[in-house]
Design a protein that fits this description.
Shape: globular
Distance between the termini: 9 Å
Strand content: under 5%
Structural class: mainly alpha
Helix content: 55-70%
Order of helices and strands: HHHHHH
Radius of gyration: 15 Å
Largest sheet: none
Number of strands: 0
Number of helices: 6
């Protein structure tokens, strides 16, 4: 199974990406579960994909609110806060547990995948100097995601 939008719910992935993108500025700086030092593995990507497929169209709390476009709450400002939002959903919490993931692992891994994927999307125009500002773990994660995309 590969980690791609073709095999999972686009709505769920879009909701997660939006939630993480809104919080990214604060997450990088404030979290003990720092995605910049999170080590992705092929097995982790497979487990994340399995969770995403299993959850299908589960809607996260607050995602359907029309006036919830600017999430300035404390829960959107850290890996821990985002993990609490996932844990508040029994279906999500159970799916993560079935695949051996904690909500904090899932959030940190998703942010690490998002970072690696964003770099890969602009790699041709970014040039090698862009990698100089990344941690060694972020560079390793880029290679893990690159290899996983080739599957």
């Amino acid at each position: 199974m590969s980690f791609s939008c073709n095999s999972c719910s686009r709505r769920f992935v879009a909701a997660l990406c939006l939630m993480f993108a809104l919080a990214a500025g604060q997450v990088w700086a404030s979290s003990d579960a720092d995605p910049a030092s999170f080590a992705l593995t092929p097995a982790m990507l497979e487990r994340m994909a399995a969770v995403t497929v299993e959850l299908g169209t589960v809607q996260l709390a607050g995602d359907g609110d029309a006036d919830d476009d600017d999430d300035d709450s404390d829960d959107a400002e850290s890996v821990e806060g985002l993990a609490r939002r996932l844990d508040a959903q029994p279906e999500v919490r159970a799916a993560l547990a079935r695949h051996g993931l904690s909500s904090q692992q899932y959030v940190a891994a998703t942010l690490a995948v998002l970072h690696a994927g964003m770099y890969l999307a602009v790699e041709q125009s970014a040039g090698p100097q862009a990698l100089a500002s990344f941690t060694s773990q972020q560079r390793d994660n880029i290679e893990v995601v690159r290899a996983h995309r080739k599957k």
